[in-house]
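Journal club prep — side note

Before the paper discussion, L.F. wants everyone to see what a predicted structure for a comparable chain looks like in token form. Sequence:
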Amino acid sequence: MVGIGPLKPLLLAFASSNPNDSFDASQVKMSDVESQHSVIRRLRSVGTEKKELSHHEGLRRASILVPLFERSSGTASRSNIHVLFTQRPKNMKSHAGEVCFPGGKQDPEDDGDDVKTALRETHEEVGIHPQFVDHIARMETVESKHSLCVTPIIGLIDQGVAEPSQLKLNADEVEAAFAVPLEYFADPNNCDSAVKVKWRGGDFLLRTYLFDDPESGTVFKIWGLTAHVVHSVAKLAFGK
């Protein structure tokens, strides 16, 4: 049974995130070029153990995959890791046209395994088989206002497998797929807006990115949970 398809990227916050925690890409010096291996090593250091609050146990669960893959840039020393995103069909009844990560609700067949959920949903939505995914890290579980726990799984995809033009998209759930350099989200100048919103008695920084995709000529709006997760991953990958 298919879950909820691409999860809506709305007002969800990491349980222990700091809304005032901004990342300055000026810390990433061009003279101190990042290699793919150093970026992946930092992400692996996050670990794959569960990171959630005690009351999350027993709540409804869902997972998303943050699919990372390397594109050849012609410069062997520079990190050229990209993030794969999907866009919901514009004719859907809810959250039409929104950008998100592959993911969905946990099914009984997943045996309570958040990684299995993320990999299954990714396979169903964009055709990437789990055998081509190395789940290198697990982010903190987030909780929606409807008590749905969402766990982001960072996955490193085999080179060539995640190219948007090569994917087999499930037309019922995905209208388009595109890729953005992970480093793009490490530069605050690329953030179109950042608005503080109230969440469970605290402040949450709601970021919005407008990415002009050179391959499709489309400007994609990346915001909410999707923007929060990818910004957090970029910070982990390139932060000092």
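L.F.'s comment for the group: The longest strand covers residues 60-70. Keep this in mind when we get to the figures.
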